Amino acid sequence: MRSTLIIIPTYNEKDNAKEIIAAVLKFVSAAHILIVDDSSPDGTGDIVKKLIPKYPRRLYLMTRLKKEGLGKAYVAGFRWALQRKYQFIVSMDADFSHDPKYLPKMLKIASAEGADIVIGSRYVAGGGVTGWDWRRTLNSRGANFVTRLMLGLKPKDATAGFKVYSGRFLTKLALDRLVASGYAFQVELIYLAKEKGAKVIETPIIFTDRRAGQSKISGELRKSLKIIWHLFLRRRVVSQAIKFMGIGLLNTFVDGGILYSLVTFADMDKIIARIISSTIALVSSYILNRIWTFKSKSHAVVGQFVSFAVINGLGLVWNNLLYGLMVNKAHIYYLLAMLIATAIVFVWNFGLSKTLAFKDKQ
Fold first, then answer.
1. Which of 140, 203, 253, 288 has the fewest Cβ atoms surrounding its Cβ within 10 A?
2. Residues 168 and 82 sit within 8 Å (Cβ to Cβ)
3. First to last CA, the chain
4. CB count, 10 Å around CB of 205?
5. How distant, in Å, are the alpha carbons of 32, 49, 58, 95, 217 from that of 19?
C-alpha cells in the first residue's frame, strides 16, 4: 500500500507550480504528488510535465480536457489515488496559501489518531490568516458560521481546503453522487463525514493569501450558497421536519373533510363528529409519521401512539393558551397570533415526537 498522495489542482498556476512541488517534497520526501491540471492556457501542465523526470515515480500529472471546478478535479484525483490504494490523500492549493510545512504534523495526526479527516484549520486556537483585509475575513468567518449552523457541523473551519483524508474514509463515499463542483466541495465532504460518523480532527495553521497568480474564488459564492442550501435540505432533521409539517397540513384537511361529511351527510352531532374526525386525523398522523417521517421500527406501537397523542394533545393546549395570551394580553393581531402560536407548537410537537415518541434508533 502506498502511503501518501498529495493532490494539487491547478489552473493557470505557472508562477507557482515548480515552487510548490519542490516545497512539498522538501517537507514530505516520501510522498507522491498528483497535479490535476484543467488544461491551463498559461502552460502550467507543460511546466509540470518537464519536471516529471526530475522526480521519477514521485510526481504525476493528470490533464483534464476542460475547467470543471475544484470539486471535479479532486474527485478525479481521489479516484486515481484509490485505484492505487494510497493510505492518506491530501488536498491543498498550489498558491502557497496552504504552507507545506504543516504537512508532517497533519500526516502524523492522521496516522497516530486514526483520523478520517485532518483539517488544517484557520479558526482553532493557534490558527489564523495573513494577507486579508477585514472584509474578506468577515466574509470567511460569516460563511463558516452560517455553514456550521445550517448543516450542524462541529469543525470551526468547515470551509477549509487544506485536509488529509484517509483512504479508508474516501472508499466509503459514492464519488459519482457528490453535488458540489466548486469550493463548496470542501463543505460537502465535511457534511458527509458527519453523516457517516467519521473522525474529524482540526489542527491550527496560518493561512497566507496567495503569493502569485490570480484568485479563482470570484463567482463561487452564489454556487456555494446553492450547494449549502441543498445540503441543508438533505439534513435528516430538516427533511423530517418538512415531512412532519406536510403530514400536519394533510391531516388538517382530513380532519375538516371528515367533520364536514359527518355533519352534512350523516346529520351527526357536531361535538361527536369533531371527536371522531380529530381521532381519525390523529391516528392517520401517527401512522404516516411512523412510516414516512421517522421510519420507526419499534414494536411498542401502543405506547408509541399514546406518547404521540399526549404530546400533540398538550400541543393543542399550548396553542390555545399562547394564542389567548397574545391576543388578550399582548394585543397582537389575531391572525399573526395564530401563526406565532402554531409555529411555537410545531417545534414542541416535532421536537418531542422525534426525541420521545419515535426515539428508537434508526
1. 253
2. no
3. 36
4. 25
5. 15, 14, 15, 9, 22
- DSSP annotation of 260: H
Please tell me the distance from the alpha carbon of residue 256 to that of residue 249, in angstroms, as a whole number.
11
Judging by DSSP bridges, how do beta strands 200-204 and 163-166 pair with one another? unpaired
Q: Which three cell numbers stand for residue 299?
A: 414494536
Residue with cell string 441543498: 230
Instruction: Read off the C-alpha cell for 260.
Output: 364536514
Task: Give me the numbers of helices (H) and strands (E) for the chain, helices first please.
Answer: 12, 9
Amino acid 300 reads A
C-alpha cell at 347: 417545534
Closest CA to 151 of 70, 261, 49, 230: 230
Please give the single-letter amino acid code of residue 295: K
The number of angstroms, rounded, from the C-alpha of 49 to the middle of its chain's C-alpha atoms is 36
Rounded CA-CA distance 347/353 in Å is 10
CA distance 105 to 120: 10
* Phi, psi for 338 (deg, rounded to 5): -65, -45
Quote the CA–CA distance of 359 and 296 in Å, as a whole number: 8
- The Cα–Cα gap between 293 and 362 comes to 11
Q: Are 194 and 153 in contact (CB under 8 A)?
A: yes
Tell me which DSSP letter residue 220 carries: H
- Please write the tens of the pLDDT for every residue from 9-34: 999 999 999 999 999 999 998 999 99
Q: Can you spell out the DSSP letters for 238-257? A: HHHHHHHHHHHHHHHHHHHH
- 36, β-bridge pairs: 9, 62
- On whether the CB atoms of residues 238 and 160 are closer than 8 A, the answer is no
What is the model's pLDDT at position 218? 47
Q: How far apart are CA 107 and CA 88, in angstroms?
A: 8
E-assigned strands of the chain? 4-10, 32-37, 59-63, 88-91, 117-121, 128-130, 163-166, 200-204, 206-208
The answer to whether 190 touches 115, Cβ cutoff 8 Å, is no
In the predicted model, is pLDDT for residue 246 greater than 70?
Answer: yes
The whole-model pTM stands at: 0.77
